[in-house]
Amino acid sequence: MSDATILRWFPPLRSAWAPEGQQAQVLITGENAKRTLWGALNPRTGHRIVTASRGCTQEAFMDFLRALRRAYPGRPILLLLDRASCHTAQKAQALAKRLDIHLLWLPKQHPELSCMDQLWRALKQYVSSNRQYPGIELHVDAAVLWLLSLTRTEALRKAGALAKGFWLRDLLENFWLPT
User: Fold this and answer.
1) Are 115 and 41 spatial neighbours (Cβ–Cβ below 8 Å)?
2) How far apart, in whole angstroms, are the C-alpha atoms of residue 2 and residue 115?
3) Cβ–Cβ < 8 Å for 5, 144
4) 9: how many CB neighbours lie within 10 A of its CB?
């Protein structure tokens, strides 16, 4: 499963604890910047690949595809993803074909089917919300470190892949590759 998310230097505001009668304070600089994190999760093993780029572009997605191929040399890659324009661009699809990465499309308007979308949600809650890092690159570093430091079980649980009703459970348990 693959997905991208945008990290903003300006923090997303979420509910936060504060003493009764006092408002929680989030210190911000008033400046903003953003980076795109690209991620893939193997819903069977919990293995994660993460890269960062300056934007959510076709070229950045193509760089991510190359990183995936380097991580899994000579192995089949089936990539479930949404229909973002950078994913459906002809150049990106042609590169995926050359790299022997098979792109499979999730239904439109169903982010709940993407394990990576669930991981991004948890990441933003634990790493990004209610705090502004000294710089956007430090925010990216903290996000990547958090995501890659999860154990296999933690990653799969936060992604929803261990849930009893996980929509790919039967396929993952019964899928085999010809030898």
Assistant:
1) yes
2) 8
3) no
4) 21
Pairing of strands 48-53, 34-41: antiparallel
> Could you tell me the two tokens for 42?
């193997």
Contacts of 75 (CB under 8 A, 6+ apart): none
Could you tell me what percentage of the chain is helix, strand and coil, using 3-state DSSP and rounding each to the nearest 5?
40, 15, 40
* 99 within 8 A of 78, measured Cβ to Cβ: no
DSSP class of residue 3 equals: E
CA dist 101 and 67 (Å) reads 12
CA dihedral 150, 83, 61, 49 (to 10 degrees): 20
- Its pTM surpasses 0.70: yes
| Predicted confidence (pLDDT) per residue in 28-49, tens digit | 666 678 899 999 999 889 999 9
Domains of the chain in start order, with CATH, are 2-11+29-164 (3.30.420.10)
Tokens of 150: 């999860």
Burial 81-92 (b: 16+ CB within 10 A, else e): bbeeebbebeeb
